[in-house]
Write a structure and sequence with these properties.
mainly alpha, 0% strand
Length: 101
C-alpha cells in the first residue's frame, strides 16, 4: 500500500487530464474535474483499463482487474474527479480496495 502525498495527487491528476486530452483529441483546457467521461469526452471502459495499467506500472502496484471491477460496480465512476479519486484509492489500497465501503 502506498501513502498518498500531495505530489502523487498532482501526478495522478496530470496523468488523467493528459491521457483524456490525448485519447479523446480535446484540448486539456476543456477538461475539468466535473467533465463527464462518457457524455463529454466519449470515453469508454477500455480507457479506464489503460489508465489502470499506466498507474500499475508507474507505482508498481499489485492489484487484480477483477478486484477493481468488483469495487467499481459498487462505486461507479462518471466524472474526471471520481476517476482520479478511484485511482488514488487503488494506489493507496491496491487489492484491499475491495474491502472498502
Amino acid at each position: 500500500m502506498g501513502q498518498i502525498t500531495d505530489q502523487i495527487r498532482k501526478e495522478v491528476k496530470e496523468i488523467v487530464y493528459e491521457y483524456f486530452a490525448d485519447e479523446c483529441e480535446v484540448d486539456i483546457s476543456e477538461i475539468s474535474d466535473q467533465t463527464s467521461i462518457i457524455k463529454d469526452l466519449d470515453g469508454d471502459s477500455l480507457m479506464f483499463l489503460e489508465l489502470i495499467e499506466i498507474f500499475k506500472e508507474k507505482y508498481d502496484l499489485d492489484i487484480e482487474l477483477k478486484t477493481i471491477g468488483k469495487y467499481s460496480v459498487k462505486n461507479p465512476v462518471a466524472t474526471i474527479s471520481e476517476l482520479i479519486q478511484m485511482q488514488l484509492l487503488i494506489i493507496e489500497h491496491e487489492n484491499n480496495i475491495a474491502n472498502l465501503d
